[in-house]
Specification:
Elements: E1 3-6, E2 9-16, E3 20-25, H1 37-44, E4 47-52, H2 69-83, E5 88-93, H3 95-106, E6 111-117, H4 131-142, H5 146-157, H6 160-163, H7 168-178, H8 183-194, E7 209-214, H9 223-231, E8 236-240, H10 247-250, H11 252-268
Parallel strand pairs: 3-4, 3-5, 5-6, 6-7, 7-8
Antiparallel strand pairs: 1-2, 2-4
Length: 269
């Protein structure tokens, strides 16, 4: 399995496709397989795509204590350096979008374009997971029943319309069981998210930015996307009607095309 050392910590990554460099940053509990082949494969048709496991998750080295979103952004900058990429298009979703915000603020010279999907900036007006969904996820994780936990994640992350086709559960279950995601690390990721707040600094980001958010997001509700867009007036805000948190899973081709269009537009600007 390909690994790369960043500041003494091994990060697992997968690379495919050809073209301009594009880095994918996953969210809480997500791994490199959480992108799904339909979405990642579509991007690989026009980009040199790297998807990696954040510290402590998946096949990356385990962690031994708390960390912050800003520290994960430092990991990501180190990964770009280790890959030999002076610049790249960056796509961050959910917690990965928070990491991407900090990356764009700390290392603006490294980003060709920025896509923030289904994410959160903290501060006044931001909204974390609705209590009902949080209780459902916690109950699943504390049950000791892996299938119950995965089913809870499926129901919270995907829209009712998508879940109406029960056959979609099989691929989600396979994704959720194929790569390890340590419960202790997920809890540390949650702590990092609680401490995240870029709301007062987002206006400093000059990188061409695309914001994507589904109106049926049950993890980080849609008003978060509206708030981020209001704090980044030059950004393009793409609203996905009736789509849940994992928009790239529900609409992989459309999501990949939005990113492709945004990257091409950034190159022309």
């Amino acid at each position: 399995m390909p690994k790369i050392e960043v500041a003494g910590r091994e990060l697992h990554f997968e690379r495919g496709g050809s073209g301009e460099p594009l880095l994918l940053i996953q969210g809480m509990s997500g791994t490199h397989v959480s992108w799904g082949e339909p979405f990642k494969g579509a991007l690989e048709e026009g980009f040199d795509v790297v998807a990696f496991d954040n510290r402590g998750i998946g096949h990356s080295a385990p962690v031994d204590g708390p960390f912050t979103i800003a520290e994960m952004a430092t990991d990501t900058a180190g990964l770009l350096e280790a890959l030999g990429w002076e610049t790249a298009h960056v796509v961050g979703i959910s917690m990965g979008g928070m990491i991407a915000q900090e990356l764009a603020l700390a290392h603006p010279e490294r980003l060709r374009s920025l896509t923030l999907g289904c994410t959160y900036c903290g501060g006044p007006g931001s909204m974390l997971m609705p209590e009902e969904n949080l209780q459902k996820l916690v109950a699943g994780m504390q049950s000791g029943d892996r299938d119950m936990a995965i089913r809870a994640g499926y129901e919270v992350n995907l829209s009712p319309a998508f879940r109406a086709d029960e056959s979609t559960y099989a691929a989600f279950h396979e994704m959720a069981t194929s790569v390890p995601a340590a419960k202790a690390t997920i809890e540390l990721q949650a702590q990092a998210i609680f401490g995240h707040d870029t709301s007062g600094r987002l206006g400093e980001i000059a990188t061409p930015t695309l914001i994507v958010h589904g109106t049926e997001d049950g993890v980080l509700p849609f008003p978060n996307g509206e708030l981020i867009a209001s704090l980044m007036p030059p950004a393009r805000f793409e609203v996905l009607e009736g789509v849940g948190h994992m928009f790239w899973w529900e609409q992989p081709q459309r999501s990949a095309e939005l990113i492709r269009e945004h990257a091409l537009a950034a190159n022309r600007s």
